[in-house]
Amino acid sequence: MKFLKFRALFLMLTSFSFFFYSCGETTSTADNPVIESIDPTSGTPGTVVTIKGSLFGDYNESTSKVYFNGELATNIVVDGNQIQWFDDEIKVKVPARATTGNVVVEANGLLSNGFPFTVPTVAPVTDLMATSKDDKSVLLKWTASADADITGYGIFIYPLNGTAPEDPIQIAKGVTTYLATGLTEGTVYNFDVHALKGNILSPKSTVKWSPASRFIYNINDAEIKVYETKSNLGSGLQLFDATGGAPKTLKIASHTEWDLGLFISGTNIWFGSASKMKTHYPTSFTGAAKPCQMATNKYFFNSLEELFDSQALDSQTFSDSEVDLSTLTEGKNVIFIVRTNSPTWNYAKVMVLYKGGKYLQGTADDRYIEVQVSYQKTAGVPYAL
Amino acid sequence: MKKIFALLLFVGILFSATVNSAPSKPMKGYVASLNDMVTGGTGKIDKAKATELAEKGNPIVFVTGKGKSAKIYFVYNEDGTFAGKNLAKFAANEFIGIVGKVKKVNGLNILIAEKIESMD
User: Could you tell me which chain B residue has the CA closest to the CA of A220?
Assistant: First the structure.
């Protein structure tokens, strides 16, 4: 009997010990920093905020961090030579891109509870769109913020996998376009546009884009012309000839290098994928047609400058196709979105010029269409123009 | 007498057409550096080199045919200026076509170009 009592006591003690040990392992929040108060609880970027609590630890540049709604605050206040980060108190400035949400302290990889903080709001810009001006620049445009009392706009430009710069490019109120220069073709950039009210930023509007080469001349420094079937000159178009560094018009003998082609029959002016041209030139187009697809959508503008996008070109629906230019009645230049070099694809926009009330220029038998091309030389980057 | 005059006129027109031919179809050939051909090369050069040579006044010419049947043409613009700089723009092409008038001046083949286009 005594043995049984001793055994029961032993089991109880063992169970209690296990319970307390388990609590020590699982209640890791015991070591996490804790925010007890914030003063003030609202403010604009640059406002000094005092965070009080516990377990903030000693300041370490790489492991001591404060976030305002996910935005890292890089300006911990320094008083004299003393960084204002103590185990129970932190003084930090609200970061430039802060928005309303929780403040969180991170110390040695452990996160605190979130504490609400309000950043006064500014209505964002809308309809942000981009277009490639050339191989080094991208033109942005947007619709103004609905807030009448904004002071201007701020733009952050950075590579897709890079980090945003600390300070935005400042744009005056009333201006709703910006030409970003000094970019690299083939690199996809984030363009974040904010409306500004003093040092308060609106939520960002973002568009991703990349510069692309624009060609109004062919490899011979002449207008890019694609000739009619009867002509001795080329009825095919290679969007980019790597040797010549520009688009190139090709005769039927070089049909395997065609991306697009022209075929005229009666009043019909067929312009489209090389594979479609193969059906129009059955006896001379004997080789395999190079894969080149056109998007279903086409656009009518007076110039390439006018066509902006907010989505990558690969969001379009592509297929081998052709268009009879004689059926287009809009009376403007027509722009096609094209991709070539399967399977990685180089994206392009091709604009057929509408001159003198028609797409077909010149005199028989050397009639032609004239085109301008925006071409993304880096494969797999669905941004051109 | 009238018949003889008409015959002479016809022969004259025929002769004139033979000497100063104005082909409606382009002559097919390629752009070359005369310097390179003289020193035993094919004359083929890239666009950048051709442009550089033309800028320095070195002759850029038009070559038709191959081997012994090859003919070298000095190409001029219609305004009488030498078309070397214009030809240089076509050096990257495998073939080009020139529409114009052919003349022979002191044994030199001269081509007055109305239009130069790619024939690739």
Answer: B89
